[in-house]
Amino acid sequence: MDPMTGTAFVIATTLKILVFFVLLLVFVALSTYFERKVAGFIQDRSGPNRVGPLGLLQVMADGLKFILKEEVEPGGANKKFFFLAPVLGLVPATVLFAVMPFASPAPTRWGLMEMIVADVPVGFLYVLAIASLGVYGIVMAGWASNSKYSFLGGLRGSAQMVSYEVALGMSLVPVLMLVGNVQMPEIVSAQQNFATGPAAYGAWFFLPLMLTAFVFLVAGLAETGRVPFDLAEAEGELVGGFHTEYSSMKFGMFFLGEYAHLITTAALITVFFLGGWDIPFWQGDNIRVLADGTVIGEPTWWKTLLTFGSFAVKTLILVLFFMWLRWTIPRFRYDQLMDLGWKVFIPIMMVYIMILGLAMYLLDEAGIPVGWQYSGALIVLNLIMMVTLIWGLDRGMIVKGATSRTRRRAGGIRGRMTPTAPSEVD
Questions:
Q1: Rounded to whole angstroms, how far apart are CA atoms 25 and 124?
Q2: What are phi and psi of 38, to 5 degrees?
Q3: Is there a smaller number of Cβ atoms within 10 Å at the N or the C end of the chain?
Q4: In angstroms, rounded to a whole number, what is the distance separating the alpha carbons of residues 185 and 25?
Q5: What CA–CA distances, in Å, run from 400 to 204, 288, 334, 396?
Q6: Which residues neighbour 324 within 8 Å (Cβ) at sequence distance 6 or greater?
Q7: Please, which residues have CB within 8 angstroms of residue 367's CB and are 6 or more apart in sequence?
Q8: Distance CA 35, CA 31 (A)
Q9: CA 30 to CA 312: how far, in whole Å?
Q10: Is the four-CA dihedral 222, 227, 231, 235 of positive or negative sign?
Q11: If 0-12 CB within 10 Å is exposed, 13-18 middle and 19+ buried, where does residue 14 land?
Q12: Is cis: bond before 74, omega within 30 of 0?
């Protein structure tokens, strides 16, 4: 079956934009409900339970409150940029989904419809370019508010996001090295196990690229600005951060933008490292459309629904994992935050890329084809490097916290205060 073309392609793309945008906004709204329920479970309380059945209408009550609240604007604020900042905080996270494949292709009477809004040839570069726009909303909000507290929060937020964007981009280089293509559907196909047709690694990339998946997970969490990386919104230090002067729906847009970034990060991890819409231990969903229009596999509607469910479940699990982290891990100090980005992640990724390139060269020279044996060798290599990294971080040799310095200082003081032995005096 040939892919859609002409008028059918335009109509199908328009419908996908509308449906997917509505689903994304609903998921963002429900994320606030899930956040409160997770917090209530961890803190041994019920969470929202009074507005509607099981508290589900609490989301609508919050939205109505944001809309009806009085909007206060600082007298010295730059009105144009003060209004534009919340938009830049929300829009980049939503338009990123345009290049994400969220299900297997679906057959129609007009041709094969790919479950992606825009299958652009530079999908990977599009992700990096749009993701970097989020920092402008933070800087703009802090500066346009004409408040020293907001400005300090904006400076902190911009420094944090710029620092971790470098590690975030570098952590995706190994994915490109394995796939050799920047199109998002090709990244999903490379993680599947095709019985015939194009070669694939037969394993989700979080196994053969375990270390870079860990770095992307932490750096992506830092990009969202949530605990333990919420230094730009440290209420106890900055009275709320870059959005201190915002109220009403403008503040609500920052609030929604945070959850949209959370969902976007979870979806990116799903595509790059968890096989996208691939269903584990089943080859029936291994469907791929080649550049010449050739279709490998048997696309059906029920497979499309199953694979969409697989993508949604993986994304939801990651979102709940991020929420669990927020309510269990304390905030980093600012120097620890910057040290982790510049002194740990960036040097580690530089070394990792060189080691991975050497390993791929040796595997190719040994004549090992792409598949389970190739992935198995990379898994062993990543396990060794991952254990080395965790051992080094856990011993406090790289990220030096206050407790390790206190212990060393206390040990030195005790050593100087230890009485001299009689044998040493003689």
A1: 23
A2: -65, -45
A3: C
A4: 24
A5: 33, 47, 12, 5
A6: 38, 42
A7: none
A8: 6
A9: 14
A10: positive
A11: exposed
A12: no
Instruction: Say how far apart CA 313 and CA 391 lie, in whole Å.
Output: 32
Phi-psi category of residue 293: left, alpha or beta, with phi > 0 → left and psi -120 to 50 → alpha: left
- Name the residue with tokens 């400076």: 155
How would you write the pLDDT of the chain (426 residues) with one tens digit per residue?
Answer: 677 778 888 898 899 999 888 888 889 989 999 999 999 999 999 999 989 898 999 999 998 998 898 888 888 889 899 999 999 888 888 888 889 999 998 888 888 888 999 888 888 888 888 888 888 888 899 899 988 888 888 888 888 888 898 999 999 999 999 988 888 988 998 888 765 555 678 889 999 999 999 999 999 998 888 888 887 776 666 566 788 889 888 888 988 888 999 999 999 999 999 999 999 888 888 888 777 777 788 888 999 999 999 999 999 999 999 999 988 888 778 788 888 889 889 999 999 999 999 999 999 999 898 888 899 999 999 999 998 888 877 665 555 555 655 666 666 655 555 555 444 444
CA angle centred on 19, ends 16 and 20, rounded to 5°:
75
Collapse the DSSP code of 3 into the 3-class scheme (helix H, G, I; strand E, B; otherwise coil) and give the result: strand
The residue written with tokens 């080649």 in the block is 290
**Would you list the domain boundaries of the chain?**
72-412
Q: Three-class SS of residue 107?
A: strand
Nearest Cα residue to 163 out of 90, 231, 227: 231
Q: Which residue has the tokens 């490998």?
A: 296
